[in-house]
Amino acid sequence: EVQLVQSGAEVMKPGESLTISCQASGYSFPSYWISWVRQMPGKGLEWMGRIDPGDSYTDYSPSFQGHVTISADKSIRTAFLHWSSLEASDTATYYCARREDMDVWGKGTTVTVSS
Amino acid sequence: EIVLTQSPGTLSLSPGERATLSCRASQSVSSYLAWYQQNPGQPPRLVIYGASSRATGIPDRFSGSGSGTDFTLTISRLEPEDFAVYYCQQYDISPRTFGQGTKVEIK
Predict the structure, then answer these.
(1) Buried (b) or exposed (e) across A54-64, using 16+ Cβ within 10 A?
(2) Which residues 36-55 of B have a C-beta within 8 angstroms of A?
(3) What is the pLDDT of residue B14?
(4) What is the pLDDT confidence band of residue B62, given thresholds at 50, 70 and 90?
(5) Partner A contacted by B92 (CB < 8 A)
(6) Which of A59, B6, B17, B66 is least enclosed, having the fewest CB within 10 Å?
């Protein structure tokens, strides 16, 4: 079964750093892009960026460029989303999804940033 | 950046009725358009890709049409589990973008 398993919920303070993960199973990890999608409470879906796990090429939305870093480690079939300095406005659920047309989604990681 | 505009914002219908959802792109995305269904507290689920191909496990009451800038998702006869929020998304040009969503609610 093709699955994306995301790391658990996080409660953080502004200014802290954070990395969340998305581990793939059931398919060839290097073969398909992984995208990250943000959903703020009660709001719609926002595409943040994507990574080609085969060569770690990344492509960011201008709205998120410079604020987050997307990476991947083929050896452990895992993609990552990293913040070096969180803000309260980063409070949201973050999803990873496979492929350009996002055929498989993780269950989401809820990140709460509050002082 | 390509802007996707979905209409209507909310569709109030009864089970068994037909639902027609629209997604308009600010420039052509060819057929690189997908539709997703999302229920509260759940991740989105792919419904349609390539503008008109049903994803695995999606019943045939769902159909997609269009190309270029105008797209439609049709649900021929609404079942109780179809009441949800639907998003369109283009994957032709970066940055990929989503529409703002259409909520299909029970009348």
Answers:
(1) eeeeebbbeeb
(2) 36, 38, 43-46, 49-50, 55
(3) 97
(4) very high
(5) no
(6) B17
